[in-house]
Structures are given as structure tokens and as C-alpha cells.
Amino acid sequence: MLTILFDGIAYGMLLFVLACGLSVTLGLMNFVNLAHGAFAMAGGYITVIMMNRYGISFYWCLPAAFILTALVGVVLERLLYRRLYSASHLDQVLFSIGLVFMSIAAIDYFMGGQQQLINLPPELSGRFGFMGVDIGRYRLFIIVICAVLTIALQLALTRTRFGSQLRAAVDDGRVARGMGINVSVIFALTFALGSGLAGLGGALGTELLGLDPNFPLKYLIYFMIVVTVGGTSSITGPFIAALLLGIADVAGKYYVPQLGAFIIYAVMILVLILRPHGLFSREGGR
To answer: pTM for this one?
Structure first.
């Protein structure tokens, strides 16, 4: 049971890193970016190419995946996304879904449709026992990395000048501009952060989740569940939701594998019945 709990926490942490960029763009920028999974897929393929073709260490691939996908995010935000900030959510959904299918077709053309594999460093492979718990080394690595990222992201959004400027830009862009805040730059940096986090999550998840051209569609529902259950008013909600769903999914597949993914959807429905606006949303507490 403790081993399942540990694996569920690792899976939940990974889900959070993959989904928190969507939480940032949806909750703080009010932009429905369903192409978020395409950035995660990009981070995964960057890792695969760097490791398998050029023999670059896995540890260098992680920051590279973050930086390169963040740069791609900035370019797309400047060229495409910024034109739809004031559009309806339906327009944003249709636009981002179109990008998803374009990314799938591009990856399938250039990389092929087969499952991509990487070889982890020896020190991250295998498992070890600790106080009766069978701990996977790579899952422990994911937990540590994701915990550090979660704390850093929470502090960046709540305790820094950038976080204050972002909230001001979202609440009233015109007033923010009048106060000297460059709203355009703030939004570009925020979108880059969300894209980079998705790319990093994709790099970390290549080993556990698998990687193929259908990755954005396969895990889009998981990203949406994390954000929907957790709410978009804070980072805490999606983090708790990701842990809850990760543990429920792993436990369900272990104890009742015949139900498949039914458990995670059942948890989502139960939470939304009790908290229609998410676990930690302000609306839900009224």
C-alpha cells in the first residue's frame, strides 16, 4: 500500500508539472490553451533527439527542454496567441485544438508514429527498499524535482514583483498600463513560463507516460481534469488535485485494473458535485 501511495504521489507530481502551465494561462491570463499538451510533447521529443541522436546527458536535456519550449511559446505568443486574448473562449478552443492537430501531423511526418524510448542514467534506474517501501529511483527524482518547482512557482506568483504585475495586468490591463506595467511583456513571459513547464513535464514524463505523436490528445483530458478539479484561482488547488488524482489512478489500476481509467473520472465527478468550481476556488466557498 505504501509503495502504491509513493508511486501515486510521483505520478500526481508529474501531472501537476504538466498541467500547471495550463492552470497559469487559464487562471491568470483567462486564455483556454488546449494546445498545452503540444508543448509537453515538444519537450519530450527534444529530450529524445538530444539523448538518442547526440548522446547528451539526461540531466542537460531537462533544462534544454524547458528553455527551448519556452522560446517556442514566446514566438507563438507573439505571432498567434496574442491576437486571441480578447476573443471568446470558443474561438480560443478552436484555435488551440487546430494547433494540436497540426503538431501531431508535423511530429508524425518528421519523427514517425512509433513510441519513443530513452535510457535513463543508471543511478535513476531500478528500485530500492526503505522502511518497507519499494521506492523507484526515478519516481523519487520526479518527486524532488516537482516539489522544488512547485515551491518556486508558488513563491514567484505570490511573493515577487512579477507576480504582482501579472495579477494587476489580468485584473485591469488598462489601469496596469497606466501604472507603467508593460502588459504585453508580462503576458509573453507568463506564456513562456507555462510553455516551458509543459516542456519540462514532457521531458520528465517520457519514461513514465510514453511518447508518440498522439501525446497531446491522449493526456489533454488529464490536464483538464487537474485544472477543473483544482480550480484556477491558485496553484494550490491544481497541486492537491493532481496528487489526489495521481494516487486514485495508480491505486485503481493496481487494485481494480479491469475498471481502467474509470476511477479518475469517478473522483472528478465526485469532487465537482461537492465543489462545482474546484477544490480551492473562491466561488466554491460561497
So the answer is: 0.90
